[in-house]
Hints:
Blueprint: H1 2-10, E1 43-47, E2 50-51, H2 52-63, E3 67-69, E4 78-79, E5 82-86, H3 88-96, E6 101-106, E7 110-115, E8 141-142, E9 149-150, E10 158-162, H4 163-168, H5 174-178, E11 184-188, E12 195-199, E13 202-203, E14 215-219, E15 222-223, E16 237-244, E17 258-264, E18 272-280, E19 284-294, E20 299-310, E21 332-345, E22 349-360, E23 382-397, E24 403-420, E25 437-457, E26 464-486, E27 498-520, E28 525-540, E29 544-548, E30 576-580, E31 583-601, E32 604-615, E33 618-619, H6 635-652, E34 654-655, E35 658-671, E36 676-697, E37 703-724, E38 730-745, E39 747-749, E40 772-774, E41 786-797, E42 802-813, E43 816-817, E44 829-831, E45 838-840, E46 851-852, E47 855-866, E48 871-878, E49 886-891, E50 898-901, E51 906-915
Parallel strand pairs: 3-7, 14-17
Antiparallel strand pairs: 1-5, 2-4, 6-7, 8-9, 10-16, 11-12, 12-13, 14-15, 16-17, 18-19, 18-51, 19-20, 20-21, 21-22, 22-23, 23-24, 24-25, 25-26, 26-27, 27-28, 27-29, 28-31, 29-30, 31-32, 32-35, 33-34, 35-36, 36-37, 37-38, 38-41, 39-40, 41-42, 42-47, 43-46, 44-45, 47-48, 48-51, 49-50
Amino acid sequence: MLKTYLRSMCARILATQLSAIPAGIAVAESKVQDPTLSGSALYSFQLPAQSLEQSLLAFSRETGLAVMVGAQGHAHLDAPPLTGMFSIDEAMRLLLAESGLQYRRVDGQGIVILPSPEESAEPEIETRIPEDVRPLLEEIEVVASKRRTNLQRTPMTVTALHGGLLQERNIDSLEALAAEVPSLQVTRNGDHTASMLYLRGVGSDNHTEAGDSGVATHVDGIFSSRVQGSAVLLYDLDRIEVLRGPQGTLFGRNSTGGVINYHTARPEREWSAELSTSMGSFQEQKLAAVANAPLNEDWSLRWAAVRHLADSPIEYSDDSVYARAGDRYNNTDLYSYRLSSAWQREGLFNWWLSYERFEDRGAGSLPIVDYDTPVVIDTPGRTELDQDAWRSRLELQLPSAHTLTYISGYGFTRRSQDWDADRTGPVGSETDPALYHQSNRTIWSRYRARQHEVQLKNSDDQRLRWLLAYFHFAEKNAIRFDLEHQLANGSGWGGAPAHSFQQPDRGTRMSAVYGQLDYDITDNWQVSAGARSGRDQRYDRGGRNIACPDLIRTDRGGVLGDIAVNDASAAADQCYVANYNDVDRAWRSTTAMTRVSYQPSDDLLLYLLYAEGFKPGIVQDGASLQGEYDGVGDPAYQSALAALIRSNNRGAAYVGPEASANVELGFKLGLLDGAMTLNGALFDTRYRDLQVSGIAVEEDGTELIRSTNAPSATIRGLELELNWASGRNGRASGFLSWLDARYYHFLAVDNEYPDHGRTWNPGIDSPEITNLVDFSGNRLKQVPGLSLGLNYRHGFTLTDRLRATARGGLRYTTSMYFDEANRGNRTGWLLENDSGHWVEDPAGATRNIDRRDAATLLNAGLKLQPVDGNWWLDLYGDNLTNTLLASDVHEADVATPAYYYNPPRTFGVRLGLHFD
């Protein structure tokens, strides 16, 4: 009987050394460096009387130690309650006291559970693991459904990466994260220091203060409209959860593409500290530290910090401004720290509070031709970005096991930046009117965001589980962004070589109520339903685009002088308002979700899901004022301005909302008696009025970020994720994503080639808009048709005192486009929209002006760790084949397009220490 029981337990309990667990296998983070260390360390247990299986799983999660069970026996054994502070040995003796089992500590391996001595034939348990111990995966817990659930029993498409995995794979940035998540793409913008996210092809190219992604980012439950801080510099995280597909019922900030949830590490009830340092290619230096301090039985503090420096891999030409490698574009200069507090009174409340500071002093991201071609720089890169964030979560335990949660957050971001936009103008072009020059400068910007959210839910063990919540979010933005874009003749866009975009009061307000019901019809069948109803407001008050007949230049202090109300009213040397952006719009929406799930066995879950998503409209630059006026006091001007604002509010200064509806069939499968999990989803998502943004060329040559709505698009796909304990010392993980994302109906003007769009797409012969072409059937940007990732790691013993873990990773993607036009190559000839004649392309022929070819990335590493010690040493190499992998294109209509690239081949070493 005992043999069959222990074989059943093996299907749920991790059975290999913690140090050999690779990326992709989520387990509890170890609170001790090695199973043989800190035998006197105390752990807090709150375990009720339950099955021994569940108690051993909870023990593993709390201590971080691997628990291994020999495949021998069957009996329904129970464990007594375990409440209080206990050492590892005390806890194990109490849990096994009534079972007739024994345990052994195995150096470098963990804890092995075996029958009593008279039933066991293992003479060398102290030195080796029995042959019949099976390698298995531990249960993974997530809170994607706003309740703590087992990943394999959660009927949602979720990728969960725990903090230990992030550290092991050196995942310390969004770009590195994207390589681990199916259907996730990340690209960077240079002049706003912003990251753009695309999930299943849904995102946004609008990187301005008005931009709004279809992928919502949350840090500890707080919506982050500015993707910075923890969402860029990934450190001291408990886990990251990525939810794919529309999320319209469980989050106050609705989303059409998905949600990324960052969960920072919480203060713990034991003293501990960690210190790690890294050194790598391009003079990379990274220092990270964590200190955890329990002040008493109920209150703990945690402090974490990271400093990351690296030189730039790009070269400047001889006629550029001088800058050492550490100050050039594409360098790294980041710093952040976080102080968090956890105060818990058992059965009463749990209050968590944190403050985080983030600083970016890098030169900014710059698009380049390749890493071997020097760039010409006349505007030194400079970024001063500071972010302060307060986050709080207060949980109150109410009668009848109800929980009332209040979540609040405040964020304040400030940024100023200088950025070279031409990369061809030598030093002196910024003052010589006979030389082409373009620079982008954020003179100042401020973003203030506040969130309040209240959640009420019943206990998790009810047959009918419900959650009801109210959400409110407000953000107020202010920015002055100056552009100098002097042509070789001293002129510029519309005859003005400089523009100043000044938005003193742009903002967002969101409020919503949402909730969800989950009902267990039987032990195998469950149904769920949810809804969100809210109001989303966008506004711009007093926003102006100002054009100037001369360069603004920083040596003049950026003073614009008296500004005319429009071009027709301006003197010869006077700046004037080119666009008025005043607008105030609000949208109401209700989205729903329904789901049915079926679990015929512990190893299989099937679910069918229908979910809706909504993304509110976004504001953009408004109309120009026509006529000649005597100034702002002119009654005719006031009347014309009022009419212009009415036009802005009728659609001239905003883009309408987008909506999505997703049908998904998913499964979660356990294989090989618990040694493997395979999760997958087959989905069909329909989008209505998908928001599309890009740089548009106005009739006078002015370049503005313009957005429009693509009437309809369809995204179909298949996603698979695999975790496999291939042996006691081996772990494999991987994913596969196949996507077919296309515009079903989309008529637009080619932003880069407004007069020659028919070169790549058919025209529709519109008499009103002669440049209108048909993008219907084109692929969405940032969507490779196929992508996959594979990771494997294997642990082995070098000596009786030293162990090693080798790992390797592969990432492959097929080709993808960076623009809705799907141009691909330039032949050297362009088709005129009006005449239908082919004319010579002044930029010449070139390949892949907006397309990336298929590519493969390889990574590898070797980690050394003593059997009895508190340090580790990790050697790693990234992008071993030195693949030049572009994430986006900057301009497609120039002779040699420039791209935002991933880092070149890098090598490094990391050293870490852990103290209890």
